Every structure is written in structure tokens, then in C-alpha cells.
Amino acid sequence: MTQEPTLIGGRYELGELLGRGGMAEVRKGRDLRLGRTVAVKRLRTDLASDATFQARFRREAQSSASLNHPAIVSTYDTGEEMATDGSGVAQPYIVMECVEGRTLRDILREGRKILPERALEITAGVLSALDYSHRAGIIHRDIKPGNVMLTPSGDVKVMDFGIARAISDASSTMTQTAAVVGTAQYLSPEQARGETVDSRSDVYSTGCLLYELLTGRPPFVGDSPVAVAYQHVREQAAPPSDLDDQLDPEIDAIVMKSLAKRVEDRYQSAAAMKADIERYLAGHPIQAPAVVPPPAETQYVPPVPPVDATSAMAAAAPPPRQDEPSRNRTGLWVLVGLLVVAVLGIGAYVLNGVLFDSAPTREAVPNVVGLTEQQARLAIVDAGFVVGDVSRDNSETVEADHVIDQDPNRDTFQDPGASIDFVVSNGKPEVEVPFVVGQLRKEARATLVAAGLKVSFEAQDSDEARNQVLSTNPAPGTSVADGTTITVVYSNGPVKVPDVRGMDQRDAERAIREAGFVADIRTDPTSVEPKGTVVDQIPIGGTLDQGSTVTIFVSAYEEPVTPEPTDPTTDPTTEPPTTPTDPTTSPTDPTESPTPRVEVPPATPASASRR
């Protein structure tokens, strides 16, 4: 039986898997509404269960959707879909432009040689995208070969503007996920130290990317992410020409300026680095200073106690004599002399170490209290120590995921390589919401405050007794942090039904509505009250639940109209004759009979008033 394709957002049909990482998976999709091919990235369900991560992911994905640049993979849509694994978690997703091509990571893994000029052109494309995003106020924070694609036509496409910031904001240790492990090779020193970063952090990561394109390897490698991060903070990368002597000094200068440890020494913007690359490609002088080779290291010679130098030299090389032995015998004496000097030197070095050397230099223990766990780990490694036991505990004063205590304490001195233990806060201890439903407001407040909780009240009309607690939010039995505010819903008592008899219909409806009820309007054809007057209601008085219906009866009576009598006269509009006429000899009969006046009795009501 053929399985139905997965549909998310009511319009995106998911297809083949394009890639999977430590954070998410990307599938090829089809937008059924617009009929176009898309790429859909969905976060792992274990990360999607973090509400904070979800909020940041949505916010940053929405920001990335505003970026419209030819070197940036477009974001079309974002949303959430319930996970299909039965976890009940809302799984965020991002719908992106589906780009045909390959990532730089795939190309580098094949061991393909990228010409220096082409590596610089690719990097310039990345910097063009970053310059646009930086001017839009968005920092990528995760520039690496896996996030840069090359299309079949050779164009550059930078990906993951939305998810990169959400990941960097998440409080995770350096070894928590494979995704963080991978990106450690491209972290800026300020990222590795857990400090606030700006656009110059992206410049550093781009320098790491260019370094790898030129040499085939990142500037720093190590056995663990922490070891790599330590190198980003403390060690200077070798110039690319040390790994490929065909590279020009100008390329070394561009790379090493972008990899400066201090942000002030780097290119101050992606545009500035891109401009220097374009100057080099055009054959013009660049602005980055030339790389100065480090001075040769001074060789350490162990101190030697005073020895009879003359006798030592005599033993090593006796004065020539006329009857000097053969060359073989001379060589033997030279070898013996050198051995004597070596033994004396080693003995003197050991003796000097025993008598004069002090204990190894001890280092001050850094203060990691108040730092996040990741920041604490990096601070310990940065100071030359090793992270020891990391435990967790509740704290009333230190927020979750920050260090409460450490051992040894700050400003004490320990041997380099010593272990530093620390305790990470779980936040305030959790308490269960007490059951206070049925209690009065005063009693409920006392119970909740005694449990270490705060209280807010919300009134609700109810048939229950006035001030009686109806419910709480969160519900009773829920575990919450100490000091959480609990909303207590209490009864305002039953609502009294207003008496609207005798009111005008409009005023009666308003009074009923303001009391929280619904008016049902009916007419009473038997009433002789003025039209529109409320003559009755159901119920009269008493109390009802808010939202109940109150029926009112409105008079439909109208006063009868008495017709005016008609006089049997001529048309009043007829003008009288201007000259009198002689009366006729005999009167004539009127041509019309006058209409008799008839009295119309008032209508008799069909029934008495409802009162």
C-alpha cells in the first residue's frame, strides 16, 4: 500500500530527504498552492519542545524572511506542525528556496583543489550577503562551509540566517550536540568566551572559511570542541602560506587580518573585507598590513655550576704533540670529551633543578559564579585549568543555567591543569500548587502565600457563594517555580435580574445587557400601554447566571385616529363671483348630499393588561 505523502501547513508536501544535521533535517517539498519546488527545514522534536527556543526560532526566521538578496537563500514561510512521533510537540519549520547545487562542505570533503582566485571570489560572494544582512540588523553567527552553496552556474548562496541565531542564543554546552561540535571550528573568540557579538564575529568566521578554502583545513583543529575553542581564544593561526607556499603574501594579509583576536584589529565590516579582496583580484594594493613572521625562539641553555673549564677543555682536546696518535685515536678522544661535557651538563642541570628551581608557576582561579555553564567552561579552559565535576542545584537568587558556586574559589592559586568544579542553578525550587477550590478568598490567599507563591484574583459571576474560590491557574497539583503568581478565580455571587417593567424598550434592553443577560423581545398585542413600553418580564426579580436570557413583553398598542368631518360646501378653491347675481325665483336643490358625521367608538382591548 502506497503511503500518503506528508503535508504540513496545509500546502507543503514533503518529499525526499536532502540533508540531516544535529539540529534539523531538510526535505525537498512542493508548494501545492503556488506549484513551486521548495526546501522545508524542520527542527528536531527534542529541541522544539523548548518553548524559549521555539520563540527565538520563530522570531529569527521571520527576520530572515525579510532578507531579499541574490546571494541569500530566500525564506518563503514559517510555521508549526504537530510532530508525528506522538510527543505532542509543535515542531517549527522553515520553508525556503530550493537551490540546485552543492555545499562547500561537500566540495571540500572530496579533496578538490580550489584555486586561490576562485576561493577569494566565493568569499566575496559570502561577504556580499553578510554586508546586506548586517545592514538589515541580522548577524548570521554560523558561517561555515556547510551553510554556503554553489549553484551549477557558480553563484554563491548563503543559508540558515534564521536558525543560526536561534541556535547561538540557546543555552547549550559545547559538547551537547553534533551541530555545535561542527561549528566550533568557525567560532570567533568572543563567541567562544560567551560574550556579546556583532557583525565582526561574522567577519572572523568568514576568515576561517577562506582559510579552509585556501588550505583544505580550518585554522584550528582539536580533539574536542572545547580544545578548538581554546585555540580560537589563545593561539595564533599559522599563515595560509605555511601550508601552501604558492599563496601570495597579500592573501596571507587578508586572511590574518580577518582572524585577528581583537575585534578592533579585524576588518570592521564585511564590506571592508570584500573591498580588500576585490583590490587584490584587480591587482591593486590592499589595505591589510603584511604578515610579519614571528621572531625565532630563543633556545634555553640550562645553567651549569662553576666547573674547572680549563681542565674540562683539556680533557676534550689535549694540546697537539708531534707524536699525536692517528686520526682514529683523535676522533675517539673527541667523542670521549663530548660525553664528559654532556654528563657534566646533565648533572649540573639536575642539581640546579633540585637546589634552585622553585615550584611550578601557579595560576589564579577565575571567577565563574554568575556565568552560564558554557561561559564557565570556556573561562576555566582559557585560564589553563580543566573542567571538573559539574553538578546542578536549586537557587533562590541565581537564575537557571548560571553558576551558583565553584571549588576552588576565585582568586585562589592552583597548578596549571588543576580541575575546577562548579554548580549550575536549576532556578528556584519547584512547589505544587495547593488545592484551594471551595475556600474563601482570604483563606486561599493565606494557603498559597504559605506555600511560597504569589496571588492574583479574578472575579467571575457564579451561583456559588460570594468570594468562594472556583478555580486556580495553574491548576492544583501543578509543579511551579517558587514565587510563581497563581491566578485565583472566585465567585462574585449570583447576578440580580433588574426589574425593567414600565421602561421604554431601548432602556430596558440596555439595563438587561449591562447586567450580563440577554434580552428576548416579544410584543403584547393586548396591552393598552403606549407603544414600546415594557409591560411584563420573565423572570421578575431573583438571580440568574450571567449570560442567561430575560424575556420582556413590549406593548404594541397604537392610539386610534378619528377622521375629520366633511362639510357639504362647494370647492373652497372656487373663486366667488365678482358681481352679485340676482337670486333665482326658486331655490335649487343641492347637487350633493352632505356626508353625515359618524362617531367611531374607541377599540375595546381583547384582554386586560398583563398587570
From TrEMBL:
The record's EC number reads 2.7.11.1
PROSITE patterns xrefs? PASTA, PROTEIN_KINASE_ATP, PROTEIN_KINASE_DOM, PROTEIN_KINASE_ST
Q: Where does ATP bind?
A: 41
The catalysed reaction is: L-seryl-[protein] + ATP = O-phospho-L-seryl-[protein] + ADP + H(+); L-threonyl-[protein] + ATP = O-phospho-L-threonyl-[protein] + ADP + H(+)
Looking at the record, which segments are called Disordered?
558-611
**Do you know which Pfam families this protein is assigned to?**
PASTA (PF03793), Pkinase (PF00069)
Taxonomic lineage from the root: Bacteria, Bacillati, Actinomycetota, Actinomycetes, Propionibacteriales
Kindly state which keywords UniProt assigns to this record, in alphabetical order: ATP-binding, Kinase, Membrane, Nucleotide-binding, Repeat, Serine/threonine-protein kinase, Transferase, Transmembrane, Transmembrane helix
**InterPro entries attached here?**
Kinase-like_dom_sf (IPR011009), PASTA_dom (IPR005543), Prot_kinase_dom (IPR000719), Protein_kinase_ATP_BS (IPR017441), Ser/Thr_kinase_AS (IPR008271)
Q: Where is the composition biased (Low complexity)?
A: 581-596
Protein name as it appears in the record? non-specific serine/threonine protein kinase
Residue ranges annotated for the PASTA domain, each copy included: 359-426, 427-492, 493-556
Query: Is Ribosomal protein tagged as a keyword?
Result: no
Which PANTHER family does the record associate with it? Answer: MITOGEN-ACTIVATED PROTEIN KINASE KINASE KINASE 20-RELATED, SERINE_THREONINE-PROTEIN KINASE NEKL-3
Q: What region holds the Protein kinase domain?
A: 12-281
Does the keyword Cell division feature in the UniProt annotation?
no
Residue intervals passing through the bilayer: 331-351
A GO biological process held by the record: negative regulation of fatty acid biosynthetic process
